[in-house]
Amino acid sequence: MDKFKQYLQDNRGGLDTEKFPVEENWEAIRKRLPLQKEKTGLFRWGIAASFLIVVSVGLYAVYQRRPMDSPIAKEVPGEIPSPQVRDTVSNSAEKNMGTSESKSRNRHIAGNKEKTSSEYRRRRRTKQPLSETEQMDIGFQAMINAQLRTIRTTPFYAENPDYFSSFKKEYGILEKEETTLKLEAKHNGMNELYLDQLIDIYQGKLSLLKRLQSEIQRMNNRIRQADPEAEKRNPVYLNI
Amino acid sequence: METVVSIRINYVQQARRGNEKAIRELYRQYADGMYNLCVRMCSDTELSKDILQDAFINAFRNLAQLKDDNLFGGWLKRIVINECLRQMKQSKRVTDFAESSFEIPVEEGGWFEDIDISVVNEEIKKLPDGCRQVFVLYALEDYSHKEVANTLQISESTSKSQYQRARALLRERLLNIN
After folding, report:
1. Candidates A7, A15, A192; nearest CB to B112
2. Of B55, B90, B125, which marks where a domain is finished?
3. Domain with B145 in it: what CATH number?
4. CB 3.0–4.6 Å: which of A199, B98, B103, B159 could bond B145 by disulfide?
5. How distant is the Cα of B101 from the closest Cα of chain A, in angstroms?
6. What is the mean pLDDT of residues A204-211?
């Protein structure tokens, strides 16, 4: 690079002296763009609230139906076995193992981490008011935790638990996105863009868990049909 | 820094979905930088405003084509440069890239170091069409001569000689001012 070019590059900041009339020109640009209809804050909260209600009703229905459908209840009435939790990603050595008790790794459900917010609990204790966003956060987290609990206590008889690893991976990505977004929102202050994205992530998580639950049920039905003895073996549980 | 990049990526993602606030924020962030590029490229503030409007509209309408959201700035810059060249051609401002041989001068030391950068900036805008675009792309936007040649549809040797011509003119004019 010649010295003159180097000099210009080093002083690049001093070259941008013109100011574009941003506001004056915005309207002309805006008119020619296919924009989303502006959602009002009320509309946005309305959507979030409706979504919460629909999912809550769905979860309630699932819980109400569960004791009758559950293979655990069918197999051992009045006795709930200590569930075996299988990590579908981290334990690759188990990839080709069956579902027998001796092969599976026991881990009690209670040991699973569940997202709770000690900060929210602390603020509730000290009677500090929560913002609308925080209240929404608590609502969604409660639903996600409930759905996670359902999955973690649903037995399955898959030959290869890695079958579900794609779900777990996808869930991990959403968790990571949520953490990043919350950090940014904490750093820069919550705005509508963050809020939109946070709702997208929560919705994505719930829909993913719902798909996973259906997939486990579907697989169990298939295995029961192919091998009526399958349910007599110890079931395994998914750790997500 | 990572946070800033991540926020920008969020804006690009939202803008792709047509979110007005995200589009407006990107427009606001890049307007001045791109406007200065336009003014240097075509040396006409009124034309630059039209160019910039069209370039932003073009970019926001075609955001789906952007493969890596992290590269939004560079992608927008290419759109702006192409729009400058297209509108200059349309407004019959024929750029003279005639082959002219300029001897590559021996590096002349730091003759420019005592000159105020704003004065240099003004003189860059007064360079003749042709060598000014080459100079802006090569010296300020850090394009290689090959990239300048591809963008302006000229040969690499023309790019090199036009750059030398611009540099020689600038030196002469700036030293006269001083």
Report:
1. A7
2. B90
3. 1.10.10.10
4. B159
5. 19
6. 86
